[in-house]
Amino acid sequence: MIKISMHQKCIKCGENYPINQIIYKCKKCGNLLDIVHDIEKLKELNLKELFNKRWKSRQFPFMSGVWRYKEIILPVEDKFIISRPEGNTNLYSSKNLLNYTGCKWLRLKHEGENPTGSFKDRGMTTGVTQANVLGSKVVACASTGNTSASLAAYGKFGGFKVIIFIPEGKIAYGKLSQALAYGGMTFQIRGNFDDAMALVQEASAELNLYLLNSVNAFRLEGQKGIVFELLQQLNWEVPDWLVCPGGNLGNSSAFGKGFKELEELGIISSPPRVAIIQAEGSNPLYLSYKTDFKEHIEVDNPETIATAIKIGKPVNYTKAVRTVRWTNGTVEQVTEQEILDAKAQVDGAGIGAEPASCATVAGIKKLIDTGVIDRKDKVTGILTGNLLKDPDATVNYHMNKIPNIKPTYANKPIVIDANLDALKRALKKSTPEQVQIVK
Ligand code: F0G
């Protein structure tokens, strides 16, 4: 493989750093760093053709939906790569969800189909691979649950010691069980995600832990694989919109960078407009957007049932603003009721996803209702996590156990005695269309 150079660069002051320096923020001005690729050199490789040739490859590492695009993600030697492999997630279209959202054309990419059940695996494969390149032994992150599940799996898979910081009692059970099961050393912080994030940044500097939150620019490189794969599934035809939830704002930041690079490479001529959706009680980007980003607003006590995006001080704020500007995008907020009703619709369509993911669908519906998205626009959305991650949110909705939430689309279990008469009586009361009583 041709050696392709990369370096790290501050997004604000432009200071450059070598690719293998362990650094997360600019030493001069404290801003975030980008991984910069040599676009002119990459143009010579005819990447679109190369990526198409690798489509459905079974060969390591190209069977991964991240490493298929390795030249524009992380061109390292294959021997360093730690891959489960990730990606190759499906793109769904659903009549029910067309009706629900009001779209005429909608595709949902289900990142909950990754090895640990969330989109985080895409960035984790590049993050732990870089840790491997650097010879780090201990990897760490703060998390609302999915990053920790992913780091625990990929870290242990790659032979690292894994240290995790989570907000006490505030992460979904499926995610906590993954962190424990994979053997991550798990610290429950008395505080929220933002407190855990501050602690892990301090700890990584003092204790020589390799930090694998999305403040690590190598994580974001892997997340770009989501939109590269999405476009490839669409034969590189760019949709009008890409809609995703926003928490720590890593994903949306990566999408903007990925689209920009594809544009520079001449693979697409312009990006889709990116819409970032936040929960009403955890909406720092939305509040800042409302000031035209003149103010950078943070939320002190974020609240939402979508615990994955319960974040008041997102570390990638500046990069997400860049995505909105680069793509002529937008930011919207949705209520708890809207998230949970959208989730019931996504689940009931036979697709299923965790609450934060369904902010995407709630957001699409809202943006159609308010006329920001035209009904005729081609809309793509990202479902970020698997339905099984947060069984409590699902069951409590259907059992009407969530305070202040109306279970609009409840599907309650029906308790009956174990005999046929009882079953027939119950079926007569509310007969699902599919079940016919023949006698
Ligand atoms: N959806 C899910 C299921 C998530 O787990 C997250 C983030 C997001 C959306 C938001 O993505 O942070 O890139 O804006 N979860 C992180 C975690 C924060 O720790 O697992 P983002």
Itemize the secondary structure elements and their pairings:
Elements: E1 6-10, E2 16-18, E3 33-37, H1 39-43, H2 47-54, E4 91-92, H3 95-101, E5 105-110, H4 120-134, E6 138-142, H5 146-157, E7 161-167, H6 173-182, E8 185-189, H7 193-207, E9 210-211, H8 217-233, E10 241-245, H9 250-265, E11 273-279, H10 284-290, H11 317-326, E12 330-334, H12 336-348, H13 355-369, E13 378-383, H14 391-398, H15 420-429
Parallel strand pairs: 5-13, 6-7, 6-9, 7-8, 10-11, 10-13, 11-12
Antiparallel strand pairs: 1-2, 1-3, 4-5
Bound molecules: ligand F0G.
Keywords:
439 residues; alpha/beta; six-stranded mixed β-sheet; 15 helices; 38% helix
Structure notes:
This protein has 439 residues and is an alpha/beta fold. The chain contains 15 helices and 13 strands. A six-stranded mixed β-sheet has the order 4-5-13-10-11-12, with helices on both faces. Helix 4 packs across helix 8 (217-233). The radius of gyration is 22 Å and the shape is globular. The N and C termini lie far apart (70 Å). The structure holds ligand F0G. Ligand F0G is lined by residues 118, 120, 143-147, 214, 245-252, 308-309, 354, 356-357, 384-385.
